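Regression report. Comparing outputs from two consecutive submissions.

Submission 1:
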Amino acid sequence: MSNSQSRRGFLGSLSLTGLAAGSAGAGNAFAGVDAPVRTSPMSPVGNIYIDPRKVLLYECTRKEIRDRLLEGKLKAAIVPTGSTEQHNEHMAMIMDTAGALLVSQQTALKLYPRVIVSTPVPIGVSPHWMNRKGTLTLRKEVFLDVVYDICDSLKTHGITTILIVNGHGGNAAPLNEKVPEFRTKLGINLEWCSYWDSIPADRSKEFVDIGSVPSHAADFETSIALAAFPERVRYQGIDHDKAPLNLNEKDRKWDKDTFEESKLATPEKGEKIIGHAVNWVTEKLLKMMG
């Protein structure tokens, strides 16, 4: 099979699961909706086909959620956390949120109908990127309050197994510090992970060479974007050396090195990363669900 055939197959599978941007068809009421991840009509789940929006809480009606809870079908929730921040000259700022949501939705589809994905937290703790234009940041305590209140809301509705799937490095330390406290205070089965925790440390034999993980807008993240939402990677018209970045010499060199590393990214690497992360998160959630 040629690489182009493989790519068409992979993007086709993502369009079926609502993860390939631009996949919404003319007959789809959600066509043209520019969310972190767009939707499409049907998705294969086991031996049936469902609308992939059914695993996204924010796309469901209250009746649909209530029915699944009353029937005992809904056992757990995923809360994706990300950011809206600079991703060098070539990547859309939604990448961290889109990556976490991508892995979360794919996981929920594998476990349908037992898992629902909450609305993602699209802005994270990013003060370290505020010297790059466009970045948005929350104070650590505000970010944590939002995450806590989402988990508390889910608990109120009867969902007491929750996995936070994080896609932004700046959120990791705050989550690691506070999730144990949240677990005790809420009295629920609550854990968190960053989806790149799934990537093995020794990648020489069992995995693809993707440089440092998670890095930032380099080979790893760019490969994911090229596989799942390639329209969010845009190299056209970029001259990094002439960009008015207003950075000190050290930061500018790091920025340029990261940009050059991103050119090693391939959709094929991204496919393997995504598949590996989804399987890993699925197993983690299955263990939480008992």
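Submission 2:
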Amino acid sequence: MSEQSAYEKALGDPAAFFGSPEAVVDTPNLSRQEKIEVLRRWEYDARELDAEEEESPEGHSERNLLQRIHQALHGLGASLNLEATPPTKAGGVPKGAVLEERGAPHGLDQKTLAAMAEALDDEFKAQATYQAVIESFGEVRPFINIVEAEGRHANALLALYHRFGVTPPEDRWAGKVEAPDSIEQACQQAVEGEIENTRMYERLLSEIRHPEVRRVILRLQAASRDNHLPAFQRCLQRFTGKRDEQGRGRRLRRQGGSESRPAPKIARKD
């Protein structure tokens, strides 16, 4: 296996390729910059797990892993700018807070820049939409988890703009999205939105050739398809299931019966 292929594999799944963040630092086959990239990717994955599975007993181990990743990054000289971007609820540092040397050739073309702008705009819209639901109906799941995930996804894209020295588009959605009339409608719209989001990323990937941008987009697409969509589908199922049970109960009452006891038979007089 060549060093380049090992690097690509490590970026795809750092936890599977290395046993620990310390092993990334100690490996002789990666440059300092490559080690930083691998640790940044691992840090992003660990924060995603920590925030989306915060009710799981594994949450403590994820936070411990984040600390070890940050220590490894610090040891490599990649400082953490805690003032530039606030910490996440889970205690992790957003990916955009890792400072690195800039000025390297980035090879971005207009199609890639347009794809980045469209992706960032869509993440801003999703974040504003889910925030509107929370403001209208309270801290309901899965919206309270996924709204934070959308913020992290936007930060991942903003980190690309920072790295390449390009000015990102402004957020045109914050505070400008109205919530639907019910949680059930919100879940239905969220399901449709995540499906469309996955399709959008598939279309954008056909336009993107830059490897680092592709890695970020692929990661965001997977999170939308594999994490957010199933969560909203379960949300919708909870409400449609309740609605179906209520409708069934009303039908039984109109028929003079109940779900557990049939309507009594009336004896016919001869």
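Expected: both submissions complete independently.
Actual: both completed, but the second showed a warning that disappeared on reload.
Relevant detail on submission 2: The two ends are 93 Å apart (CA to CA).
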